[in-house]
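dude i think i finally got it to work??
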Amino acid sequence: MKQNTPTPHNGAKYGEIAKTVIMAGDPLRAKFMAENFLQDPVQFNDVRGMLGYTGTTRDGKRVSVMGHGMGCPSIGIYTYELYHFYDVETIIRVGSAGSINYDLKVGSLVIAMGACTDSNYANQYELPGTFAPIADFSLVRGAVEACERLGIGYRVGNVLTSDHFYHENAHNDRWTNMGVLAVEMEAAALYMNAARAGKKALAICTISDHLLTGEATSAEERQTTFTNMMEVAFSL
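look at this
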């Protein structure tokens, strides 16, 4: 048995969390996934309100779902513990993102092959250069195949993981000019933790708003289109 569990942030005992964890920033979205995608889900965590559940999928695969909070520091803590203390092998983030590409419409899915960032999260590794956080290729390929099988629109490419939700300066076109598709707040830290642990990770995001055009999803559209990325994640 692992001696580090439960942790200060996760009340689960070792063995209560599956090898694959699907995570969302909002813990209530984790609860939604448990109730709609898992059979016989059992709650393993409610510490700090960060809900987590383990159950089985429709095809009998044991999977856990859990919230990860907002930003690199929050997802960094939860995924580090999952990888290192609970022996989780694969973490898939499902979340929202803002488009900074004119051709990427609201409601579309972004499969984040890479994650640029303005965060200093990588400084802890004291690398002699700039690290490029990337997803696991087998998960990227599986997500693409799932989207095509399910008829869900998608784009594969770079996202920007930003530490800023409210920024002093309005968005400029510098990241857009480099082909970055969308802005979110967690993928880079997830990918770095996975790389350091030798584990797998992927972020799949639904475009909830367009930072260049001002287009945004309604509450009803979010309920419908956000389910698409969950269908993809649970198929991996």
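The mean pLDDT is 94.
im so relieved honestly
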